[in-house]
Design brief:
about 120 residues; mainly alpha
Length: about 120
């Protein structure tokens, strides 16, 4: 991170931003509050819940994140998907449903070679 700061310092000479561009405005403070407070709190809740929920269910929830992002961006921002986006979203949803409700290969053979504690 320090390397990036050093690499980007010359842009201060090129940009020549006025001092008022760095003044704390209401929008900046709200953005910092949301990012610093709510996002950090949500991440803490996520870490806590991940200890309680089985790993398979957590993986399924994370796998469906692009579909939720596309739906929310359509609803709130008015963005649209092309055919490739719809097909991709459908495949992700199908994979999540198969992972959640599909049964994997079931073996009726007994487990051989297990060691019983003495």
């Amino acid at each position: 991170m320090m390397a990036m700061v050093v690499l980007l310092l010359p842009t201060l000479l090129v940009e020549q931003a006025p001092a008022q561009a760095f003044a704390p405005t209401a929008l900046l403070l709200i953005g910092l509050g949301v990012t610093g407070g709510l996002a950090t709190g949500a991440f803490a809740v996520q870490m806590w819940v991940q200890r309680l929920v089985p790993a398979q269910q957590v993986a399924l929830i994370f796998a469906s994140e692009p579909v939720y992002a596309a739906g929310l961006s359509w609803y709130f921002l008015g963005e649209t998907l092309d055919l490739q986006g719809w097909v991709g979203s459908g495949l992700i949803l199908l994979a999540v449903l198969v992972g959640a409700f599909g049964s994997g290969p079931q073996s009726s053979l007994p487990v051989v070679g297990t060691v019983q504690p003495a």
